[in-house]
Amino acid sequence: MVKSTYIVRITDGLPLSASVDDTEDETKLSHQKQQCKLISRKLTPNSEDRASIESGESTIHYLILNNVAYMCICDKSYPRKLSFSYLEEISREFDNSFGQEIHKPGLRPYAFVQFDNFMQKSKKVYQDTRATQNLDKLNSELQDVTRVMTKNIEDLLYRGDSLDKMADMSSSLRMESKKYKRAAQKINFDALIKQYVPIIGVSLIFLFLIWWMFF
Q1: Euclidean distance between the first and final Cα of the chain, in Å?
Q2: What are phi and psi of 133, to 5 degrees?
Q3: Residue 31 contacts by C-beta under 8 Å, 6 or more apart in sequence?
Q4: What residues form the membrane-spanning segments (predicted)?
Q5: pTM here?
């Protein structure tokens, strides 16, 4: 399930809003929330626009829109498609509601704390068992997230890996995927030619013989 949400401006790391969690979750997620803040400091406009970062029994997902990072902490078993569907929903609403104010200079931290009301309502929808089941049935209609990079928190925070490097890796993977797809299409086309050319040739010869016999 979605446990907590954090919204930050990546140009300067200013926190814009965050979900107000109950005391129990606040205690349990204190380590992951600190990691969210550390990750946000590594984000730049050149970073991969969406990624999943594994942290123990949890996964931190983030989505970047208009230089704002939307991050959520979820159970590791929670479907990634639903996590990003949730982030897309809150990012659209946040941008529509505060898009003109987000990048104003002199903005105080957590200036849009009132957005927690929308995040709590959205979180309940995505945590309700029946709603989750219904959303899961719509996987084919959700945006494909197979290209999302997955990183381990230790690699990212303690070994100094760069999120910008992840973006380069993701771009390379997409390019290789396109090359593979074109190669596969060519192989399939060549196979079709090899399969049907003899049949077409025999058919043409047969038609020519019929034409020669009767005309």
Answers
A1: 77
A2: -65, -40
A3: 55
A4: 196-214
A5: 0.66
